Amino acid sequence: MSAPVTPELLNALSEELFAAWQQQRTIAPLRNRAELTLDHAYRIQQGFVERRLAAGETIVGKKIGVTSKAVQDLLEVRQPDFGQLTSGMVVPDGGTLDVSKMIQPKAEAELAFVLGEDLVGPGITAVDVINATAWVAPCIELVDSRIQGWDIKIVDTVADNASCGMYVIGEAKASPLDVDLNLAGTVVKVDGEVVTTGAGAAVQSGPANAVAWLANTLGELGLPFRKGEVILSGSQSILLPVTAGQTLECIIGGLGACSVTFTNGSAQ
């Protein structure tokens, strides 16, 4: 029998996720604990993020998830979700990432936007997004889940801050006016070998559309979407396993590349 949904329960689930993140362990799916709605899940997410901020991190941006039809079918939803990026999630381009400090990471390639001005919805269009964007860059997102075995539905991943892990933004930057964001091809290489390809059109018919959705959603929720924030616009590749010793590279046509090498500090 599911527990009644109360503010105390939502707070307890936020604390459980935060503890799992701190201790690098998984917990049972949240959807089996109570009849959680999407609104409940975002309230749990906010509590989880607030605990990270209290521990010393800051908000640096947002990420958009669940943008492809395949993932939406899997999670039984018909809209994307979002999570909040913190200062503790940043990995430098060409740097290393100790995967032993994550729980069950997977990698995906996407396009990152950095806002040149505030973007306040509702009513934001893809054209508004392009006009408000200072620059775009290739990005590798390392998603992670505090939920056992990635056994997630939409309330699980939303509560878990949209499965945020770490991310790498390329040093290669360009104006969104200088790159065809929808048609530019994305190539992902592992140790120099191509493993998957994609294009921006696979993300909500274009990554600027995904960012417009987020601006409008945040506007309805009264959440800020500020100049200087990073927005990860949604995966343009399949999810890839992460293995220590590999180097993963994301290349976006007409823009450039970014890369990260995975290590295992616990094996040293």
For this entry, give a set of tags:
5-stranded mixed β-sheet; 13 strands; 8-stranded mixed β-sheet; single chain; 26% helix; 268 residues; 29% strand; alpha+beta; globular; Fumarylacetoacetate hydrolase, domain 2
Task: Write a structural description.
The protein is of the alpha+beta class. It is 26% helix and 29% strand. Strand 12 (247-252) and strand 13 form a beta hairpin. Helix 1 (7-23) packs across helix 2 (38-54) and helix 4 (126-132) crosses helix 6. The protein is globular, with a radius of gyration of 18 Å.
Concise account of the structure shown:
This protein is an alpha+beta fold. The protein contains six helices and 13 strands.
Q: What are the low-pLDDT stretches, counting only 5+ consecutive residues below 50?
A: none
Name of the CATH homologous superfamily: Fumarylacetoacetase-like, C-terminal domain
Fold-level CATH name: Fumarylacetoacetate hydrolase, domain 2
| Principal-axis shape | globular
Strands, count: 13
Largest sheet: 8 strands, mixed
Mean pLDDT: 92
Order of H and E elements: HHEHEEEEHEHEEEHEEEE
Instruction: Quickly count the helices.
Output: 6
Number of domains: 1
Task: From the alpha carbons, calculate the radius of gyration and give it in angstroms.
Answer: 18 Å
Please indicate the percent range of residues in DSSP E strands (runs of 2 or more).
25-35%
Question: Any idea what the CATH architecture is?
Answer: Alpha-Beta Complex
Helix content: 25-40%
